[in-house]
Amino acid sequence: MVMFGHYYLIFWQHRDIATNLPNAMPLPTSIVTPSYIYTLNFLEPFSFGIFGVAIFFLISGFVIPFSFDKTSWKGFLIGRAMRIYPTYAAGLTFSILVIVVCGIHYGRPFPFESHVVLINYFPGIRDVIWVAGIDGIIWTLDIEIKFYIVCALASRLILNSRTSVFIIPLALSIPAYLLAPSVDEAMKSGALFSGQLYTFCASIQYLNFMFIGVAFNYLYRNVIKADIFLVVVVALFMLMAAICWRAKTVPITLVWTYGFAVLVFALAFTFPKILKARAITDFFADISFPLYIIHGVFGYALQRVLAGMYVPAWLCILLAMAASVLIATIMHSTIESKAHSLGRAMARHFTIAHRITT
What we know:
The protein has 358 residues and is mainly α. The protein has 15 helices and no strands. Helix 10 runs antiparallel to helix 11 (194-220).
């Protein structure tokens, strides 16, 4: 969904955005966007990309509590670090190489300073320091890392299935809600720490949404009653929407895309037999993370080159998708799977040692 939204809609309807990311020249006006590209405009403000990210956030919220059944919070953080950082570092390096090659091809200088490149290798820190993202997707990993940290701090509550864990996003939402109105003005004026203010409010906004996934986890394990579950989900969603509305972190019209994602997730949760695992879904599940990392910069760059050669738009999209899937598959087998296995082994070893000492 994310890849489709970027390749089909963003690239052909928002050309400046799509070509700036890989450091390419905009498409010339002689290359006309086909009329069929606009056929999905009636769905606006629904966003395919945001829908995919929302599902990703909900899945994270749903599965992470299971981790604490197997390891301590320290082992959890070790496993998560090995799950995220090696693969992301490889994907970011690949994207940077694409940006360099595009810059050479189109006669454009490399657009990032060295310290920006270095900081981008550390999702979770990048937005706190407030430097530009390179690949267009790091913002979601910034949020994900913060969610891991909050879950690690709340590990005892999650391990014991305490509903009081939902007080955490509620408590964090109070200062975010109060500070939210000053975000937009601070960003426009370039006030000191305006980026950090935005990061705080946006992080709490999405943290509320990810805890909806935790609520589904509690319902799945029968540790929360259905009526309490509904209250928690509605409250978390309303807090997310309220902070978004007041802070203007994203257009408020996108909130309904997040709401639709909750409904789709609830449908899959309620009728799991309809969505059984298949070879094709297992394959894309395996490569989903590297595909997410590399698809933006690389796919835009490849489409720009192909479109510049007057390759039809539909073929540009298909070729970019196929090439991105191929690279993600290679990255999964050579880097991601090995780093993930190593992280699991490290977490188990740490957990065993931890249990012996305690």
